[in-house]
Fold:
Amino acid sequence: FFMLALPFFTKRFGIKKVLLLGLVTAAIRYGFFIYGSADEYFTYALLFLGILLHGVSYDFYYVTAYIYVDKKAPVHMRTAAQGLITLCCQGFGSLLGYRLGGVMMEKMFAYQEPVNGLTFNWSGMWTFGAVM
Structure:
């Protein structure tokens, strides 16, 4: 749905505001995950809302970023610019993020001893993502 709405939003609000909306939506999404990590019925609703926000945050940030790069890059450099953004977001960036992120999350958020039956601080991890 949000992919279909993207042309309307970019025309109405501009590409930079749509990018900002994508980032804000991602932060809100992570906020839902922060408070959705407890074991209560209300928190399940927050987790579900966080999952529902994936489409708007992905489309309004990543897809819009590709469109922005395509518009800003000179015609003879568009292929290289698209390749670079893909490498940064999904290639080298993902590889580096997965490697360093796993080590960092284990050092920062794994409990040495279980706390309230948990071995990992999920709220802390989602807070870190929302703040970033």
In short: The helical segments are 2-13, 15-35, 41-52, 54-72, 78-109, 122-131. Strands lie at 110-115, 118-120.
